[in-house]
Amino acid sequence: MRINNAIPALLLSVLAFQTAFSQSLGFSAPVASPAHKPGELIVRLTPGTDIAQVVRDVNSLPVSEGTARLARTIVAEWRYYLIAFDESRVNAYALAGACASLPGVESAQLNHQLEYRGVEPNDPDWYQQSDMTLINAPDAWLSSTGGLTPSGDTIVVAVLEKGALFNHPDLAANRYWNWNDLPDGLDNDNNGFPDDFGGWDVANYNDGTGNNGAHGTGVCGIIGAVGNNGTGVTGVNWKVKIMNVSGVEYDDDIIEAYHYVYVVRKQYNESNGAKGAFVVATNASFGYNNQFPDSSPNFTTWCQLYDTLGYVGVLNMGATSNQDVNVDTDGDMPTSCPSEFLITVTNVNKLGSRVPSGYGKISIDLGAPGTGTYSTTNAGVNTPGYGTIGGTSAATPHVTGAVALVYSMGCESFTSDAVSNPVACARRIRDVILTAESLSCARERLVRCRS
Questions:
Q1: pLDDT top residue among 31 and 409
Q2: Quick check: 447 pLDDT over 80?
């Protein structure tokens, strides 16, 4: 049964997941000492203690070099004072430790500089990406910006398109490369696809990038434009590897494309990561209006592919119609497919309201921002640029990127069975995306996960 969760705040459950993990299990990552304001020490005194006497006691410490003085009273009611000293002559950490042991001193610490905990990339066009704010991506990036699972698997997303411009400066570094094959005319990794070094073009049987189209380039940018590189925009994932699966234009192309993804993920599972690719999600920002799965043998086959992919651990994202129709009654491909490994996406605007696009309590899982999404694009066939992409084509890759981001987060045991038990792991990730869990529910899930 589908969960009709038209939630634009897509990464709220991801945040609950990560927050619950850190809070319920009491983990804190070791960090270097934070920066502090030179020559300032904050002390809190016990009731009735005279600050003038404490300053004299500080100056009697060998580590102080007699440089201490009262700079100001911070809060008299709470007995907090600021003591200044000459840090050019004094070891600040030694002084703080010694002060904490003085009579009448309840606590002593350096005057640390705060680190504001917002994560916004330095990409110059970030200000145009209100879609990322809508799905709470900046908060999720506090925990992870993608790349690897806690077990060290390189997370890969397969994008099925006619093509995309992978030499784009915001995509090139995140393009997936199959290092077990070489562009030498041979099938070096024995996966049945010779020279699939840069993915697979199903139309030309090579690893070409297809038509380098603006549509595919925009979709890839939403999922994984390189983040924080001082260039253009950022994707939901700053570091995810994007697998080019190009030349997809007809039903047979769809079947061949999904087959390629199935083969490389299955090979990864069976070789324990020595070969293949750790593909966790596919993105299909295309489809057919007013079609049901049983309206054509090819459509039936198409639906079956999602289960096949799910059994090797791949979740699949599908864009619904851009028509304002009830998909349950009017049909749509692929979003009428009943597979538990297909997540179907409709379109919402920057305010989180659904715009004319497919809906349905049974067939549509959630909504994500699509209208007016600013992303990577082509100024020409081989000329990279930036611009807007809209509709469910833009909404869907937000979800695809979120799926991949969950794999990079938090509790190692949450994804530790991704290779050994890929079906269970894929279902677990799906549930995090589709279920608007409360923080307490997420915490309970993670306690079970850890135990």
A1: 409
A2: no
User: Is the residue at 2 inside a domain?
Assistant: no
Same-domain pairing of 166 and 265 = yes
Average of pLDDT values for 44-67?
95
The one-letter amino acid at 213: G
End-to-end, the C-alpha distance of the chain in Å comes to: 29
Residues in the chain: 451
- Per DSSP bridges, beta strands 80-84 and 36-45 are antiparallel
Q: Over the stretch 97-128, which tens digit does the pLDDT of each residue have?
A: 999 999 999 999 898 876 544 456 788 898 89
**Which H, E and C letters describe 276-305, residue by residue?**
CCCEEEEEECCCEECCCHHHCHHHHHHHHH
Minimal CA–CA distance to 374: which of 10, 127, 128?
A: 128
Q: What pLDDT is recorded for position 23?
A: 41
**Alpha-carbon span 449 to 20, nearest angstrom:** 12
Given the DSSP bridges, would you call strands 366-369 and 315-319 parallel, antiparallel or unpaired?
Answer: unpaired
Q: Helices (H) and strands (E) in the chain — how many of each? A: 13, 15
Q: What is the CATH number of the domain that holds 313?
A: 3.40.50.200
Residue that terminates a domain, selected from 62, 83, 112: 112
Report the number of distinct structural domains present in the chain.
Answer: 2
Same domain for 16 and 80?
no
Closest CA to 336 of 314, 367, 358, 307: 358
Give the end of a domain, one of 87, 112, 137. Answer: 112
